[in-house]
Amino acid sequence: MLTIEYQPDNSIEITVDADGLATLLAHLTSLVPGDHVHLLTPSWGGEELTEVFPRPELEPIHKVTIQLVDEAEKARMFGGR
User: Fold this and answer.
1) What burial class does residue 41 get, using C-beta atoms within 10 Å of its C-beta: 0-12 exposed, 13-18 middle, 19+ buried?
2) Which are the contacts of 56, defined by CB distance < 8 A and separation ≥ 6?
3) Does residue 14 contact residue 4 with C-beta atoms inside 8 Å?
4) How far apart are CA 12 and CA 75, in angstroms?
5) SS3 assignment for the chain
6) Residue in 48, 40, 46, 34 with CA at minimum distance from that of residue 77
7) 61, 49 in Cβ contact below 8 A?
8) Structural domain tally of the chain?
9) What are 17-52's pLDDT values in tens digits?
10) Around Cβ 1, how many Cβ atoms within 10 Å?
11) 12-16, 21-25, 36-40, 69-73 — which is least confidently predicted?
12) Which of 1, 7, 35, 49 is most buried (most C-beta within 10 Å)?
C-alpha cells in the first residue's frame, strides 16, 4: 500500500505498508539527476499508488511526479538561492 492524500490545509498524508515503502524507496533511489518518475494509481494507468484510500475525508492523489535536479538545474530554477 502506498497512498497519497491531500488535506485542505495544503498538506499531504502519505500512508505506506512495507511493500509500499519498498516501492517508494526503489523509485527514489533509481533517480539520477535530470530524471523523473511518475507514481500513478491503476485508474490513471499506473500501479505504484494504491487506489484504496484510508481517509475518506481527504482528497485522493492519483499522480505524483518526482524529479531529481542537479545543482545547475537547481540554480536555474531558484535563481541561485
Assistant:
1) buried
2) none
3) yes
4) 26
5) CEEEEEECCCEEEEEECHHHHHHHHHHHHHCCCCCEEEEECHHHCCCCCCCCCCCCCCEECCEEEEECCCHHHHHHHHCCC
6) 34
7) yes
8) 1
9) 999 999 999 999 999 999 999 999 999 999 999 999
10) 15
11) 69-73
12) 49
Set of cell numbers at residue 60: 485522493
Instruction: Please give the model's pTM, rounded to 2 decimal places.
Output: 0.83
* 19 residue type, one letter: D
Domain that holds residue 46: 2-78
Asked if 48 contacts 56 with a C-beta cutoff of 8 angstroms, the reply is: no
Which residues touch 53 (CB under 8 Å, ≥6 apart)?
3, 5, 60
Q: Which residue has the cell 511526479?
A: 65
Cell of 75: 540554480
